[in-house]
Amino acid sequence: GYHYNALTCEGCKGFFRRSVTKKAVYHCKSGGCCEMDMYMRRKCQDCRLRKCRAVGMLAECLLTEVQCQSKRLRKGGKSRGQEEEENTDSRRVSSTSRIPAQVLSAGLTREQKHMVDRMVEAHHQFRGQDPSCLMLFEWQNAQEDGGVSPGNVPPHLQRLLLFARTVPGFDLLDFSDQIALLSVSLLEVMFLLSAQQFSQNPASPSPVLQIFNTSTHSWPRDVESKENFQSRMQISSGSREDLLGSVLNFLHSTAVLRVTEAEYALLTATALLCSDRASLQAASCVEKMQELILDLL
Questions:
Q1: Region Disordered: start and end of each range (predicted)?
Q2: Which residues contact 110 (CB under 8 A, 6 or more apart)?
Q3: Per-residue pLDDT tens over the stretch 30-68
Q4: Tell me: the pLDDT tens digits for 126-168?
Q5: Do 176 and 281 touch, CB atoms closer than 8 A?
Q6: What is the DSSP letter of 23?
Q7: Mind listing the domains of the chain with CATH numbers?
Q8: What is the CA radius of gyration of the chain?
Q9: What are the E-state strand segments in the chain?
Q10: Measured in Å, how far apart are the chain's first and last C-alpha atoms?
Q11: What is the pLDDT of residue 217?
Q12: Of 157, 162, 163, nearest in space to 119 by CA
């Protein structure tokens, strides 16, 4: 499960909590070079704690004793009637057109909020780059990146990789799985970036528009102008026209929803973590990682 900002087993969750709570100091007899496995993790606590920190576990994600007691009291004090009332309120709130950001964040644990904040910051940096860096040819060449190694990652994958590394558990995947997920999700990521850019500024450069050789300055800004725009477009084939119409509908639909930065970050992470991708060695792990993100959404 996801514990203290990292995807770990229950055993390491308890070990990390005890070590931090007791402020334990361990010493490795082999100079801190033990390779962690099911056997060595019981033999060298120093290297085990190092490994916990290396995969992203954070001491600040632990609850204080006062917070733990408060949490237990809240759980024990809820009657069945209160729970039913809360469920009713929850359904009523979910039916509204918009939920304030503070209400959404109030439902997250401190650990979850820390995770989302990291992803949002990384996503903001990812999309905040020069739009010229997000040219269509980079996305088109994504499938041609054979033989990618850790020291030879193409620029367009490097930018997405920086964001992906904030997704819980991504760094624990084999490098070949990381590159496979990045490469085949680039198109979905491009559409999400384009949707966010369009909702904030319809005239801003958009990667998806390059498919149709369309200038962003002539991009429609409302439903009526969208229909007029489609009728004015000189499109040679019906299939291309259908595709453009679908793109228009997608961008306008997301703009109407007023998707937040946090939601775009989580949607991008969801697009990255598709377990049905080809050539994945750890498909089941990727599926569990995606479930964590979907729960946050």
A1: 74-97
A2: 61, 63
A3: 888 898 888 888 889 999 999 988 888 888 877 766 556
A4: 887 654 445 444 544 444 445 556 666 667 678 888 899 999 8
A5: yes
A6: T
A7: 2-62 (3.30.50.10), 107-296 (1.10.565.10)
A8: 23
A9: 2-3, 6-7
A10: 17
A11: 42
A12: 163
What is the tens place of the pLDDT at every residue in 88-133?
A: 444 444 433 333 443 345 577 888 888 899 999 999 888 876 544 4
Which amino acid is located at 186 in the chain? L
> Which residue shows structure tokens 């001491």?
59
Alpha-carbon gap, residue 54 to 56, rounded angstroms: 5
Q: What percentage of the chain has pLDDT greater than the value 90?
A: 12
pLDDT for residue 225: 44
CA-to-CA separations, 113 to 63, 120, 121, 291, in angstroms, rounded: 13, 10, 12, 16
The Cα 274–Cα 230 span in angstroms is 33
Calpha distance 48→40 (Å, rounded): 8
**What's the chain's length in residues?**
297
* Angle, alpha carbons 218-191-124 (nearest 5°): 100
Tell me which of 282 and 210 has the higher pLDDT.
Answer: 282
In 3D, which of 156, 146, 205, 203 has the Cα closest to residue 180?
146
For the CA atoms of 192, 201, 211, 215, what is the dihedral angle to 10 degrees?
Answer: 180
The two three-digit tokens of residue 261, written as one number: 């930065």
**Phi, psi torsion values for 229, nearest 5 degrees:** -65, -45
At residue 113's C-alpha, the angle toward residues 24 and 116, to 5°, is 110
